Amino acid sequence: MATSWVNSAERIGSDLHLELTGPGGRRAALIRALREAVRSGRLAPGTRLPPYRSLAADLGVARNTVADAYAELVAEGWLTARQGSGTRVAERAEPLRPAARVPRKAPARTQGPRHDLRQGTPDTSAFPRTAWLASYRRALQQAPNEVFGPGDPAGRTELREALTEYLARARGVRTAPGRIVICSGFAHALRLLFGGGVLRGPLAVEAYGLKFHRQVLTAAGVRTVPLPLDEHGARIDRLGRERAVLLTPAHQFPTGGPLHPARRAAVIDWARARGGLVLEDDYDGEFRYDRKPVGAVQGLDPEHVIHIGSVSKSLSPAVRLGWMVLPERYVAAVLAVKGDREAWASVLDQLSLADFVASGAYDRHVRRMRQRYRGRRDRLVAALAEHAPHIEATGIAAGLHAVLRLPPGTEASTVKAAAWQGIALDGLGAFRHPDTDMAAGDGLVVGYATPSEHAYGPALEALCRALPPP
Q1: What is the pTM of this model?
Q2: 190, 216 in Cβ contact below 8 A?
Q3: Mapped to the 3 state alphabet, what secondary structure does 53-69 carry?
Q4: pLDDT at 38
Q5: Nearest CA-CA partner of 311 in 321, 324, 303
Q6: Alpha carbons 132 and 116: distance in angstroms, whole number
Q7: What is the secondary structure of 387-456 as a DSSP string?
Q8: Could you tell me what percentage of the chain is helix, strand and coil, using 3-state DSSP and rounding each to the nearest 5?
Q9: CB 345 within 8 A of CB 310
């Protein structure tokens, strides 16, 4: 059988070569070839095509194949067919002129900072690829068929069971798998709780915190009320008529330091007395360097605290997994907001994390990173002692960042000087609630976890050059 055909001048009046190749059989190939001939101008408008029988004989295909191809192209407007006039190329089927060739350019690449000392990001070069891949493979091999269908909005049972054991052991959280709902991170938890109407404002928040979280709450129609801070953490005695408060008790972000034990007890007493609720952002809860990590506030009263955590700092923000440990009365409402199936958190990633936690790989990774970040912190403190002894680093007992206290009135100029040195970082003022009258002083929020090991030394040198003189 022929795969191509060159017509004679008697039939069409010009030389035409049809290649019948590609997927879909002879009919589809003939349609593609004729379309291309018209599109390119090799078949001009008004040109008469050969009869079915002649073209079928030349190509070695069935007559019906040619008839069907012609009929398809007539229906699409490429050809016209009239009784006694045969099949012709449609007059409006204008050939496409080849577009001028434009040299391909490589996509523009945004020039990033030479030294990234922004807070909130772990050392991405330290992601445990080998151990994670092993967990992923085991999870995939052992996964039941149902895993590949719609996901449970509560999250996979395997992950909720693994988290129940881990959070009890590592963070002092008291819960059960049925009271854990998987989400894609802390911001997603806020959207589910407030955007879905499970909770309503106003909400007390710490006077210094992430602007992004306040924006999420504002978008959900929640008014946030700033709560002053001091050296012992949030001023619980300043809580007003709010029915809920959002805290970072393990390590206040960004000023640093845990919530004082007396205030941990006081906020639980407040919640019980008012029928209120504490939202516990377990920020940096696993990275404490000078003593054992402080346990979660949730352990004091599981019915008045929503404990929210994620792996964005401990593992990677790319994994996009977090969890809410809920009082029993909120579980059904949160699941109703999530809907009938999981739409955000990958089920396969959930199974991988479940294996990663249950196998002990997560504990090993956290211990390794705790040691690495402690070394980073110590190098920062040593560099300041040598090159800028007048600059104090605070909030360094835990977490992935430190606050460098600056002389009054120098924050803006120091951030600008850092930018000239190619350093990306934030001033402390960037985290201040717009409605607070509290001022924490001038400072830099330095994320010492973000750079890779080989990049950290040069970043510290550049940072010290940007700091104001005594």
Answers
A1: 0.77
A2: yes
A3: HHHHHHHCCCHHHHHHH
A4: 85
A5: 321
A6: 26
A7: H-TTSEEES-SBSSEEEEE--TT-HHHHHHHHHHTTEE-EEGGGGB-TT------SEEEEESSSS-HHHH
A8: 40, 15, 40
A9: no
